[in-house]
Every structure is written in C-alpha cells, then in structure tokens.
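Because discrete structure vocabularies remain unfamiliar, we turn briefly to a single example record, giving the amino acid sequence and backbone structure tokens:
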Amino acid sequence: MGLSSDPERRAAQLANLVKGQSSDPAVAARQRRGLSPGRQVHGAYAAARRQPLEDEHRTRLAAQFPGAIDTPAGQDLVNAAAKRAAMLDLFGAWLSDNGPIVMRGRTVEVTAPARELRHLLDAHERAVFQLAALEREHGHGGVPSLEDYLAQRALAAGQADGEANR
C-alpha cells in the first residue's frame, strides 16, 4: 500500500513512519532495544521483553507487602500485579512514542494499546488494594488504611501543637 494522494492522509501516514533514531534519548534507547523501522509494536505481550521489568516490579511489591507475600493468595497477587505493571510500562512507552490517538481515513480513533492500558490500570489498582488488605489482615503493618493514616496524622498534629504550647 503506497502513500495517499490526499494531503491530510499522506501527512498522517508519514507521521506514523519511523525514520531513523529519535533525537529524544529515552525514545532512542527504546528504539535500540528492539523497535525496528516501519511498524512498531509495544511488546507488552512478549514474555522476553516483559520479563526484566516484571522481575523488578515483583521485587518492589514483595518488599512493599512482605506479609502478603507469605500467603498463597498474596504470592499470586504479587505475580499478577508485577506482570501488569511491566505491561503498563511497555504500553506507556509505546504510547509516549506514538500517541494514544490515530487517524484512520477521516475518523479519529483511540489506539488499542491506549484502551488496553486503561483496563490494565484498573486491574492493577484492584490488585494493589487487595495486597494492602492482605497485609493489614496478617498484622504485618504495611500500608495503613486511609482511616488509620488520617488518625495517625491527626495524632501527630495534636502532639506537635502540644509541644509548641509548652
């Protein structure tokens, strides 16, 4: 399929082509890690591209929720959340390079990676809330609930006021 003779469509087609290394260092680094000229793919479903990021997120989540990781459900949640977080990184990198909106003919559409990113964000947020609940349930402290956090802040503010009055 060649370039369109319609100026608007031709400009959109040319904007989607990769022409060498980007001047942005972050984009250029991602290009060197496996993006080839022509059609770009996000790689979020490729285990080989996702695995290093997934390992980093798994380590971070295990440190953040040490009590939850001791339970079978917590291990599953950490693994799933780490996988989603790695996919979020890859989708986000692709979207920062290509943008969330494309023009198909005269119709403007949201890209599939942008839609998938929204669903992954929702699922990841639910998993982190479940991990925090497991952490509180097993008495390892971890992430306090909002009510506990606000109570701690009020107590700290009251103590600070008391010391200032002395």
Remarks:
- Confidence is low (pLDDT under 50) at residues 35-39.
